[in-house]
Amino acid sequence: MIQHPIEINDVSFSYNGTDVLRGVNLTVRSGEFLAIIGPNGGGKTTLLKIILGLLKPSRGEVKILGKPPASARHLIGYVPQHSAYDRQFPITVWNTVLMGRLGSGKPDIGDSGDEESVASALRAVDMLSFRARQIGQLSEGQRQRVFVARALASKPRLLLMDEPTASVDIVMQAGIYELLKEIKKELTIVLVTHDIGVIASYVDKIACLSGEIFYHDSKEITPESVEKMYGCPVELIAHGVPHRVMGEHRHD
Ligand SMILES: Nc1ncnc2c1ncn2[C@@H]1O[C@H](COP(=O)(O)OP(=O)(O)OP(=O)(O)O)[C@@H](O)[C@H]1O
Ligand SMILES: [Mg+2]
């Protein structure tokens, strides 16, 4: 039987009796790039935590890379939303990313292989020249890029990112998406984002999570299908679709 990176079957979850996820089914295949969109409180971060094995569903089954989530965690790179990192904690950019190597399952870190992984992750997000800087002395967007590098440094098979571009400027945002497009050749990516207009040309699939997950395949995106996406269905995005899928969207 083929084991997909993510297999989620009829998963429900509640915090203290309040339903947050209901009957969620999701399969992400190897090498796929999935974006999850949806309203605030729709359960996106909760679903990522279930994938990481940090939360246990009240119902349903989750298999990550063929294993129970907690046993697969060392194969997952995770960029949390608004990283709950103490910004005043005196640690350099380099050591922050080096910590990502701890996730690789090695008993200790700091050998030359680790150095190379840290350097290449920092180079990928264009932050190598900040290597000696304290993490508290960066801008919000620069710090975000360092957290992306930290997730990449463990050379994960599955990369989960919760709004990694939230405070990143438009140029760097494009940089991060180009980077994801590049690394997607080697790994599977799940990205939670509100950048609906930008992601269409990068991702393979968009799911909308609003308590329930909406998912259906379609060959191309149209203004109507984008509207429907806001109302929640999922579209399969054709490759090579121009950037401006949101051109028709009205703000009224
Ligand atoms: N630790 C918690 N205890 C109780 N309720 C929680 C907890 N964490 C989240 N919730 C609630 O669960 C629901 C889903 O939250 P979640 O963080 O998964 O949403 P989200 O889709 O990530 O939203 P956003 O776009 O704002 O990040 C929300 O109604 C939230 O208030
Ligand atoms: Mg969230």
Descriptive report:
With 252 residues, the protein is α/β, with parallel strands linked by helices. The protein has a domain at 6-83 and 156-231: Rossmann fold (3-Layer(aba) Sandwich), CATH 3.40.50. The protein is 29% helix and 22% strand. It has eight helices and nine strands. It has helices at residues 44-51, 69-72, 93-99, 112-124, 140-153, 170-183, 196-199, 223-231; strands at residues 6-15, 18-28, 33-37, 59-64, 76-79, 158-162, 188-192, 205-210, 212-214. The strands form two sheets. A six-stranded mixed β-sheet has the order 5-6-7-3-8-9. A three-stranded antiparallel β-sheet has the order 2-1-4, covered by helices on one side. Strand 1 and strand 2 form a beta hairpin. Helix 3 (93-99) runs parallel beside helix 5 (140-153) and helix 4 packs across helix 5 (140-153). The protein is globular, with a radius of gyration of 18 Å. The termini are far apart. 38% of the residues are buried. Bound molecules: adenosine-5'-triphosphate (ATP) and magnesium ion.
Topology:
Layout: E1 6-15, E2 18-28, E3 33-37, H1 44-51, E4 59-64, H2 69-72, E5 76-79, H3 93-99, H4 112-124, H5 140-153, E6 158-162, H6 170-183, E7 188-192, H7 196-199, E8 205-210, E9 212-214, H8 223-231
Parallel strand pairs: 3-7, 3-8, 5-6, 6-7
Antiparallel strand pairs: 1-2, 1-4, 8-9
Helix pairs in contact: 3-5, 4-5
